[in-house]
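Most newcomers find our protein records easier to grasp once they have seen one. The structure tokens are whole numbers drawn from a learned vocabulary of backbone shapes. The record below serves as our worked example for the rest of this section.
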Amino acid sequence: MAASKILMRSTMLLLTLAATGCATVRQTDPPTTAEEQLLVSMAVDRAVGKLTLPGVPAGSRLFVDVTNVDVDQNGTVMLLPKYTIAAVRDQLLRLGYKLVDDRKVADYVVELRNGGQAIDEKQIILGIPNTTLPLPMTGPVTVPELALFSYHRQHGLSKIGLAVYGRDGAMAYSTGSQFGDSEQKHWTLLFLISFTSHDLTTPDVK
């Protein structure tokens, strides 16, 4: 009986501390945060950076066909499709090719495909997670996370490939599927100690 009272009082104390503490509100415009957009765009950059066309002569005129870029993948909207297309075009220009807007005048057609582009999340928490409690008279109250230990990992991933063929329809080169990824990790220890690591920006960006 005494043990149950102690447990109840400890729980109430934690809830009281949580209720009087500061809750973090996620508010962004647009709905995805800058960090989430960077996770995807960095993964795209790394996948696109692996694309080369050794079977296609430099200086060739290329028409980029984006018909197979799936903006909607199984009911889920792909993040940053226009950025992906622009990144591929940028890479082709860097490789010394000329881009044309008319398929008929192109030496080669480059078909761009994107097999996946999103963010996966993994979270482990030892403690009380962020919770919304319905309280009478006052309405819902958000209780911030109280963690002895928590780990949160966000993993951005992009899968991109190019198929190149000439005017006769014959294959000139295929890059196969190239992958790029990025990540951000956040740890919390003993309620107050927290730190974050990521590979999204250069050291001069705060």
User: Anything to note?
Assistant: Confidence is low (pLDDT under 50) at residues 10-27.
